[in-house]
Design a protein that fits this description.
alpha+beta, 9 strands, 6 helices, Alpha-Beta Plaits, elongated, about 30% strand, 9-stranded antiparallel beta sheet
Length: about 220
Amino acid sequence: MDPTFMQYLFYRLDPAWRRLAEDERHCRTTEFAEAVEGAEDITTYAYNMTGLKSGTDLMLWRSGPDLARLQGEAARLQQSALGKYLDITYSYIGLIRPSTYVRRQTPQEQAALSQERSTYLVVYPFSKTTEWYLLSQATRQGMMNEHIKIGHEYAHIRQVLVYSFGLDDQEFIVSYEADDLLEFQSLVMALRATDGRIYTLRDTPIFTCVHRPLREALAQLA
């Protein structure tokens, strides 16, 4: 299996951007969009964050076969005219790997490489306690089976699981794609009552992101 790296880049917009002339903003967002679209071997999805999380206005969900390429293209975006008004406030990286608990993952259980995106993407870093990894494989599998069973009851909600072990502060980046946030919240509430919950060490901050076509997301920065 060839490696696929995932990165979630969260940007904060300098308020000075909004004081620029409209035609100047348009030219600079066009340059930025062309840089994103022209990056070979890198897939990028854009999410507008304005008003949803303090310190974030734009999120780019990016994937590619090489982390150095992702870094290089991120640097190129920072060097653009719009990039000079964008500060990276959060960045999460990891790899797509086969599941430890599911032999054949369905598109619902791992939607990372799907080309269809839902309206909402909820993203958070996630780590288990040390005690979780000291449990037997059979015990962990039993608790995960309960987790998976509940997930299947919400068939319209898709999971994206990224492994960050040794590459970032968290162990996983967990994301859920949904078109109905009420249904998603019901899933989260159901999962809170599972036995595996006591082994959660960290699952914040949580980012609720709204998917937009790239140029539309950039236009909304204005």
